[in-house]
Specification:
Length: about 230
């Protein structure tokens, strides 16, 4: 499937983020948990999956016939960028079968001191046909990533970086601003906890919506219920 066809298939739909990190209840050393979340998402009508690590992507692709946005989460010292920040990780994601690679495109220091422009250029040189999703937190970051050639801009990091901590959650205004840029393909992601939140994002101009915590993170979901039930006691 060609890049344009993959992106067109995501339009107006829901991408479900199926991820678990070490220390979380849904994480196991052998995997095989995230593919079940992905299968449930597919049967519910999702148009794509977002997944982390070559292992999970590979296992998901074995049972789910949907495009996968792949990434690797790995910290390098004290550097704040951690989403697919090396060429080796891009390669891992692609070899596992992901159709789209998500990378950290926030304006934060990288472990290797490279700029986003340099990193994007290296990715394009080594993987010229990759579909690249830029995870950003601010309007300026989104515009820069788009100008540098990202295929999709995603609001993934809004509210999670120092520059965006005070942003609304979910950040509907950021979606409106980026959606107004002609030709920009936009994924709304981050702090979307209900179907109504997602619908507002689409109405504001997002091309598609990515939801993880409200669907595939039982610990987060249970905590919200416990906290909500305790209010007013």
């Amino acid at each position: 499937m060609r890049g344009n066809e993959i992106i067109e298939g995501l339009q107006g739909g829901l991408v479900v983020s199926c991820q678990a990190l070490p220390g979380e209840p849904m994480f196991t050393e052998e995997g095989h948990v995230m593919p079940l979340f992905a299968k449930a998402a597919m049967e519910a009508g999702a148009v794509g999956i977002r997944a982390s690590s070559g292992r999970d992507i590979r296992q998901i692709k074995e049972i789910v016939d949907l495009p996968v946005i792949g990434l690797v989460k790995k910290s390098y010292g004290d550097a704040p960028q951690y989403i697919t920040v090396t060429l080796r990780e891009v390669e891992e994601v692609l070899e596992a079968g992901a159709e789209i690679v998500a990378v950290d495109a926030t304006d934060r220091p990288r472990h290797d001191g490279k700029t986003i422009a340099t990193y994007f250029a290296e990715i394009r040189r080594h993987f010229p046909h990759v579909l690249l999703m830029a995870d950003i937190a601010t309007y300026a970051e989104g515009i820069l990533a788009w100008e540098l050639g990202a295929d999709i801009i995603s609001t993934t990091m809004s509210g999670y970086t120092q520059q965006s901590l005070a942003s609304p959650k979910p950040n509907l205004e950021l979606v409106r601003q980026l959606a107004a840029v002609e030709g920009l393909i936009l994924a709304a992601e981050g702090h979307i906890h209900s179907p109504a939140d997602g619908k507002r994002m689409l109405d504001a101009g997002a091309d598609f919506v990515v939801v993880g915590g409200a669907i595939t993170r039982p610990l987060e979901i249970a905590r919200r219920f416990v906290s909500g039930l305790q209010l007013g006691r």
